[in-house]
Amino acid sequence: MNPLNDWINGIRSLLAPAMICCLICSKNGRPSAGLPGICTGCEAGIPWIRQPRCQKCGRHTGCPDCNRSGQSAPILYNRSAVAYTPVMRELLGRYKYRGHERLAPLLGLMLDRAYIQLKAYIDHPQNFTQVQSRQLPEHHFLRKKRANPASLWHADLLVPVPVSDSRLMERGFNQAERLADVLSRVRRIPQLPLLVRTHHTGKQSFKSRAERIADMKYAFAANSDNSVKAQFNSWLSQVKAPGRPLQILIIDDIYTTGSTIRACAEAVQLMCASHRRDAEIYSLTWARS
Ligand SMILES: [Zn+2]
Ligand SMILES: [Zn+2]
Q1: Are the CB atoms for 226 and 204 separated by under 8 Å?
Q2: Does 10 reside within a domain?
Q3: Does the pLDDT value for residue 242 go beyond 70?
C-alpha cells in the first residue's frame, strides 16, 4: 500500500463513525446516533408507538379494554415505547431470560421516549388530535392541570414492578428495576422498590384475561423492609408537590392486559393513603402487546 492511501484511509476512518456490532441484528453497521449499541438500520425498524389509538392505555391498535364498563382505573395513563412485534419480543427475551445486560441502557433509553410522550400528552392534550380534545369533559383532570400553565407535569417517583424471590434467584436481576434505573438517571427522578410480590403468579402468558385479573388481585403488597420504609418516609417529607397530588410512575417491561400494573397501582395508592397523601398513578412500559 502506498503512504498516500494509508493517509487517506486514516482520514476516512476519522470522519466516518466507527462501525459497531449491533445488539439487535448482530451485524456490523453504522451506529445509531440516539440509541446505544444498535445500527441505524435497526433503529429505523423500531416499531415506536408515536400515536396511540387509545390515549388511556397507550395502545397502538383499537382498544376494547379501556371501554369496558365498570372497570375501575387505578392508573390514569400508560405509555409504552414500542409495539410488541416478534423482533421486540426477541430483544426483550435476550435481556430478560438470558441476562444480556448490555441491553439495559438501550431499553432504558427507549423507555425514556415513552416518558417524553406521556409528558407531552399530559401537558398539551390539545395537540393530540382534535377529537381527543373535544372529548375531554369539562371537569376532566387534564383540564384542571392545564389551568395552571406554570406547573408542567413530571413524575415525582418511579416504582418498578417487583418480581418474586424465585424469579430473582433464577434471573439474578429485576428487569423493571434496571429499566427504572436508566430512567431515574436520565430524568433525575428518585426510584424506590415500594412493592413486593406476595405470591408467585406463574406464567401469565398462558392464562386468559379473566384468570390474569383474578390472579393479580392480591399479588402485591407494601415492601416491609425497614430501609425501604425509611426511604419512603424521607421521600414523602421532602417531595415538592405544592397543592397537587403526588405523581407516581409504575415501571414495567411489558403491558399486556394491564392487570399487573393496575394491581401495583392499587397497592401504591393504599400506601400513599396510609400516609394521608393523594397520589395520581401512571405507568410506563417498554412494550405494548
Ligand atoms: Zn442492527
Ligand atoms: Zn386502552
Answers
A1: no
A2: no
A3: yes
Q: Which ligand is nearest to the CA of 40?
A: 1
Q: Cα of 167 to ligand 1 centre, how many Å?
A: 30
CB 24 within 8 A of CB 91: yes
Please give the full DSSP string across 69-111, using - where no structure is assigned.
TT---S-S-EEEEEE--HHHHHHHHHHHTS--TTHHHHHHHHH
Q: From the CA of 188, how far away is ligand 1's center (Å)?
A: 30
Distance 148 CA to ligand 2 centre (A): 27
Q: What is the mean pLDDT of residues 4-23?
A: 76
Q: Answer whether residue 155 is part of any domain.
A: yes
Choice among 9-13, 16-20, 171-175 with the minimum mean pLDDT: 9-13
> Which ligand lies nearest the alpha carbon of 35?
1
How many domains are there within the chain? 2
Q: Could you read off the pLDDT of 36-80 as tens digits, one per residue?
A: 999 999 999 999 999 898 888 999 987 877 766 445 578 899 999
Say if residue 40 is in the same domain as residue 75.
Answer: no
- Mark whether 79 and 36 lie in a shared domain: no
Ligand nearest to the CA of 73: 2
